[in-house]
Structures are given as structure tokens and as C-alpha cells.
Amino acid sequence: MQCKLMAVVLAAAIPLCASAQSSVTIYGVADAALAKEDTGAPGGSRTVVNSGNQSTSRVGFRGVEDLGNGLSAVFNLEAGVALDSGMGDTSLFGRRSVVGLKGGFGTVLIGREYTPIADVANASDINGQGFYGTNLNSFGTNRLTRRISNSVNYKSNSMGGVVVSAGYGLGETLVGPSMDLMGLALEYKANNIYVGAGYHQVERLASGDDKEMIFGAGFTAGPVEVRGNYMVANPTGNGNKYEQANAGVSYTFGANKIYGNLQQSKLEGGAKGNGFSLAYSYALSKRTNVYTSYASIRNNNKAAFGIFSAGAQVTPDALKGQSGSDPSAFSVGVRHSF
């Protein structure tokens, strides 16, 4: 049923593009890879075809209408697609579904949107939240929040390189804690320098609010780019604090680009995992590249941290006694954007 609905949406959008090319755009990414994944536990190794090892495969629609006097109406609908199976996400446009207004005041969007912290996490990850070893594992198992539904969001225009983002997501609960999320981020992007910080507060329990924080930075000097971040998820209660740090560098020469990242994750109570990742990309054109990536994490006997790429994850199962296992993953893939 979901695939039929996607086909109807695509068919309906084609005449829009033909008659209003300047206002509606169909775009997407097709990314697939052959991968060897190993959770580090007995029997945990397998060879798979994955979708989205560098970038999540997707189809999207975005548009803008000039309303005059510097005001525009904007929208974006984006659906995830699994190239290995042809399936779509559980929610048709679960990646992003927003509509709003843009003008001299900035941009206001309503719907399902990326959180302020997610913007900083993406900008300060050397892997661009792609390849095995990305910082996306900090958003797993309800740690940091990457997207918010039922939300109202604001992003300012650049003010000398400074951009302010704010989001409020409504939990829409009838009883108990509201599950509302309030988020704020401040970013500076200018002169090949990036600095960002973000904060979330989530009313998840009556006993107190969950808190999420990020600090990120980076700079570019010719072919060399350096990015890093520090993230904290501090849920209500004792002994729940999660921390992750990343430090990465990339080097571009011609059509080639090499990425390297060091990562540490830890939980209050002693669980710790130290990881590293390496990736290589070769651009066949402006839209198509081939790549390979490898990542590994060494967990202590209390930890079961995993490896995430844009569209896949390799994680030991702590419930099955796999804490202390050391996951690893290797992939070779191709990505095309349109």
C-alpha cells in the first residue's frame, strides 16, 4: 500500500515540474553497498547488501512560491527508500515533512523537522553523518533526538555568519508528562570556520526533564578539513548520563577524498567504547561517486556500543550477554544524487 501511495505521489508531481520548474523540484539519493558486518559476538558476522552506507537513499519534493514583498511559501517532503529491498520507511515522509514561510525574518516551518542539535551534529561530523563510524550512534536507543514531529521551528537568516535555530515539538499526550521538546542552537559559519552549540529539554517523566547538549567545531584549510563534537544525553534519573566525543579529518586531492575519525562513547556506570573509522571516496562526476569505508569499536566489558552508517548499524545485543563485544564493518558502494 505504501509503495502504491509513493507511485501516486510521484506521478502527480511530474506535471507540476513540467509547468512550474522554478517552484517544485524532485530530488533524491540512490546509495547501495556490499558490506561485511560483525557484531564481535559468536556468530555475529554476515555479508549483506545495504542501502545508504554513505547517504540514506531517499526521494524528496521541495518547492517555493514567491508571495511578493520578500515573502515566500516553502515546503519539503522527503521519504526514505531502501534500495536493497525496494521498501520505504514506516512513515511515508518520515525523514522530513514541513511547510512554512520564509522572509527577512528568517524561516518558520511546521511539521516533522530536524532538531537544532541535529543541525550541529551534522555540520561538525567529518563523515557528514555518512559511512560506518558516523556520530549517528549518539542518536540511537533514545539518547539524543534527531527529528521532532508535531513541531514548530524557526531558523534565522545569517547575521554576519551567525544563525539561530529553535524548535518546539508537541508530545500531544492526553495524560502524564507532556513529552514536549524545546530546542535551541547557535551556529557560526564564516571564513572556513564553523562553531555550533545546541540544547534540548524533553518533559519525558513527571520526576524531571531529560537534557541533551552538543558542542561542535571545524575549519577548512585548502584540501584539509577538521571537524569534531562533544555530545551529552542526560535523561532523568541517576546513572543515565551518556557522552560521546568525535575528532575527524579529511583530505581532498583531485577526485579523491580520504576521511578519518576517532570516537569515544561512555555511560555513567563505567561502560566505554573507543572507535575509529576510515573512508575513501572517488568522484566519477558531480553526482556520482564510489566509496569504501571501515570502522571498529573496542567496548569494555560493560559496553555494547555499535557502529552506525547513514542507513545501517552493527550493534552487539546486551540483552543476549554480548556486552564487551567489539563490532566492526567494511563496505564498498556507489552513490548517485539527482
Strand arrangement across the biggest beta sheet: 1-3-4-5-6-7-8-9-10-11-12-13-14-15-16-19
Number of strands: 19
Strand percent estimate:
over 45%
What is the mean predicted local confidence, pLDDT?
93
Note the run of SSEs as H and E.
HEEEEEEHEEEEEEEEEEEEE
Pfam family, one: Porin_4
Main location: membrane
Protein name: Porin
Membrane topology: Multi-pass membrane protein
Concise synopsis of the structure shown:
The protein is mainly beta and 338 residues long. Helix content is 8%, strand content 55%.
Describe the structure.
The protein has 338 residues and is mainly beta. It is built from two helices and 19 strands. The chain is globular, with a radius of gyration of 20 Å. The model is unreliable at 1-21 (pLDDT under 50). InterPro entries: Gram-neg_bact_OMP, Gram_neg_porin_domain, Porin_dom_sf, Porin_Gram-ve, Porin_Neis.
What would the keywords be for this entry?
disordered N terminus, transmembrane, Gram_neg_porin_domain, globular, Porin_Gram-ve, 55% strand, transport, two-stranded antiparallel sheet, mainly beta, 16-stranded antiparallel beta barrel, porin, 19 strands, 338 residues
